[in-house]
Each structure stands twice: as C-alpha cells, then as structure tokens.
Amino acid sequence: MNENQVIAMPKIGDKAPEFKAVTTQGEINFPSDYEGSWVILFSHPADFTPVCTSEFMTFAVMEEQFAKANCKLVGLSVDGLYSHIAWLRTIKEKIEYRGMKDVEVKFPLIEDITMEVSKRYGMIQPGESSTKAVRAVFFVDPKGIIRTIIYYPLSLGRNFDELYRVLIALQTADEFSVATPADWRPGDDVIVPPAGSCGVAKDRMEGKEDIKCYDWFFCTKKLDKDTVLKKLIKK
C-alpha cells in the first residue's frame, strides 16, 4: 500500500477488508480463517502500557465466555512480534490486577509495524496519534461482514460487559428477527420490526399475546432469557 494512498474506512455492512498477518499464534488470513464464527478484531495503542494491559487481561479472562458464544478474538497493535511476546509473557508472570493473575493470552495478537492493517481499518486517527492505533473494535459476523464498529481514544479503557452485550444482541437480532431496545440484555423484551401498524405486527409474530404496543410504530415482544441463551451459548 502506497504511503500516501487514501484508504476509505470500512463501514458497517461492508465485507471486512482482507489481509494476511503474522501473529503471536502464527500467520492468519483474515477474515477467511474465521468463516463460520463471529470475530472481534480490536486494536490497542502499544505494548507495555497500563490501559492496554488491563484490557488484554480482561479479554483473556473472558475469552472462553466469548468462545461459547461462537466468537473469536484477534488483537492488533503497531508493535513488533517480539515486543508482543515479551509483553504477554510479562502479563502472565508478573501482573496481578483486580484478582486476575497468571493470565495467559492465547488469542492471536497481530504484528503491524508497517501500519498497513491499522490504516486499512481506520485505526490510525492522526488527531489522536499518528504512530499508535486507537482502541478500535470491529464485530465481524460468520459471513465476514462488519456488523458493529466502536472507537475509543487512547486514554479510555473499553467496557467489556458492553462488548459482550453487543455480541449477544447482534446474534439475538439475527436469530429471532427482532431488534433490541436501549440497554437490552437477555431476558428483556425485544422490539418487533415495524410492520405498518400494531395489528399487522401482531398478525406477523408468533405468540401474539406477548406483543405490547406503545403506538403503531413501537411494539415489543417477550423473549425469555433461557430461550436466547439456549440458542446462542454453547455449554
């Protein structure tokens, strides 16, 4: 990629830009290696920094939880492979934080010293830093389509409960053909897609007695937590 070439940032609904990369877990081809799984591709500013350390420890501790929801994790920074390896070893051997200790990061961490991947995904935000990636998060679905994009500045650590909530909400929307309201969590009512009128909405949905309409454009339906989790989460 030419250094002066302008790359359009990927958007929600786009096919995730393809790339090959060296990682701490070997070479990957993204997103083709992850076909059939959800993926969270996320960037961090630099190895051996405190906010990034807290985030990687949290992601590593939650990796199994994401895996049960058919989601794999892939990290990235513009540091080199040997820096990545040394940093992750330090985390495992020396860092204890909020009850987390002996934390081993098993998901791949991409080496991106050329910034090629970072630039392709709009992770380099010059107003924040021209030499470090911001904290970008891309949710990529099993077909390789970008479904959600979240950006955080260098100083702000991510909310991991929210990242997991987003994943489950996206999967719920796909699986049950619904939308999710503000602050939705499994067990909360879901939004019935607009159907022109409440009467039409009720006629189109199973379990008509569970439909509640606040007006013609705003109808909700009960969707119990067990139904959601049994469908989405592997035991």
Structure description:
By secondary structure, the protein is an alpha+beta fold. It folds into two domains: 140 residues, Glutaredoxin; 56 residues, no CATH class. It has six helices and ten strands. The strands form three sheets. A five-stranded mixed sheet has the order 5-4-3-6-7, covered by helices on one side. The longest helix is centred in the N-terminal third of the chain and has 19 residues. The N and C termini lie far apart (43 Å).
Q: Specify the helix fraction band.
A: 25-40%
How many individual β-strands? Answer: 10
Evaluate the radius of gyration: 20 Å
Question: What separation lies between the terminal Cα atoms?
Answer: 43 Å
Write out the strand line-up for the largest beta sheet, numbering strands in chain order. 5-4-3-6-7
Summarize the main sheet.
5 strands, mixed
Write the H/E string, N to C: EEEHEHEHEEHEHEEH
Q: Tally the helices: what do you get?
A: 6
* CATH class annotation of the largest domain: Alpha Beta
User: Superfamily at the CATH H level of the largest domain?
Assistant: Glutaredoxin
